[in-house]
Design goal:
Length: about 350
């Protein structure tokens, strides 16, 4: 017998019809819900009840969040913190009942006809793709979601209300910033002092081209100035927001009318915090009066309201209006008129 004939003997005679012999399937057994309308309605109510219990658990989770206080002696369940126990039980219940409801829906109400599909190439023929879409649409129809509003609506309610516990738990991330990002410690009449040492600055102290790092006098409280003591984290936060740079140029070099009005004898004051991602700026081009950020090379024009002339920064540097007090020291006319810092959050205070 030739090799060709040997191979021919191994090929099943039914290859052209099916790749393997069809082992057959047992007869389909109809479920009670397929043949009994009362059983179908009862199953539908059971599924809806599971989704309803999920909604109830989500509501009880939020109630427990505010009712039980962490650390209180009387808020215990079996020696465990009542808050943790209640939150865990009710959040777990909300998820559990959604799962049970979906499983019951699939077991009792969705179509359960057996489907055979042969393996095919990675890219199916167009007719197979159309058949697959038709099968998916048929499956969607058999799920009954379109004709079972009770199940559909309770499922949507149970899944939707789960967003509320997530929102409630965001409260534990800390207090909301409120309008703290829109304001700094600068106030009208507050002196501008040198960073680190805290000495006030006179106009005569600065020469053309000088760049000085400065802070508000309130961050260096003494008996003479009468500002309250600030310590710890709050002190660091106020320093970060209120840090400024002073630069002196010839008044005729100032382009913007606002910049000129907020300057004193060519001395301008801008926030030290880059409006890109908040890096401290201190690279000064003396001849052009351009200020560069060392992180991503954003460049700001100090002669023209601190506008961005190069780089990824999205906003001009906020300018601090300056004046001179009776002793000749530089003071602020007001706080910044716009929020300082990075521009990845909405900077418009209105």
């Amino acid at each position: 017998m030739s090799d060709q004939n040997s191979h021919d003997d191994l090929v099943p005679s039914t290859f052209e019809d099916e790749p393997i012999a069809n082992p057959g399937l047992p007869p389909h057994v109809w479920r009670p819900t397929d043949v009994d309308p009362k059983a179908e309605k009862r199953a539908e109510r059971q599924v809806a009840a599971m989704f309803g219990l999920s909604i109830l658990c989500a509501i009880l989770f939020m109630v427990s969040y505010f009712a039980f206080h962490v650390g209180s002696d009387w808020n215990t369940i079996g020696g465990l913190g009542a808050s943790n126990v209640a939150l865990g039980v009710f959040l777990g219940g909300a998820l559990l009942f959604i799962g049970i409801g979906i499983i019951q829906w699939a077991r009792k109400l969705m179509g359960d006809q057996e489907i055979v599909e042969y393996r095919h190439p990675a890219r199916s023929p167009d007719e197979d793709r159309e058949a697959t879409l038709a099968a998916l649409n048929a499956g969607l129809e058999e799920s009954g979601i379109g004709r079972r509003p009770l199940v559909r609506n309770t499922l949507l309610g149970a899944v939707g209300i789960l967003a509320l516990p997530a929102i409630v738990m965001l409260r534990d991330l800390g207090p909301l910033p409120g309008d703290k990002l829109n304001h700094t410690i600068w106030r009208r009449g507050m002196r501008v002092v040198r960073d680190v040492v805290g000495t006030p600055i006179k106009v005569s102290d600065l020469e053309l081209g000088d760049l000085v790092n400065a802070l508000p006098e309130a961050l260096f409280p003494t008996q003479e100035n009468g500002y309250p003591e600030i310590e710890g984290v709050e002190l660091q936060q106020q320093k970060v927001k209120a840090a400024v740079i002073l630069n002196r140029m010839l008044p005729e070099e100032i382009v913007s009318e606002q910049t000129l009005n907020w300057s004193v004898n060519g001395i301008v004051c801008y926030s030290k915090i880059c409006t890109h991602v908040g890096c401290p700026i201190s690279l000064n081009e003396r001849t052009t009066h351009h200020l560069l950020c060392p992180c991503h090379q954003s460049t700001f024009d100090l002669t023209d309201s601190g506008k961005v002339i190069f780089g990824p920064a999205g906003h001009a540097l906020p300018q601090l209006p300056l004046a001179v007090d009776s002793d000749g020291y530089l003071i602020a006319q007001s706080d910044f008129t716009e929020p300082v810092g990075p521009s990845f959050w909405e900077r418009d205070p209105s």
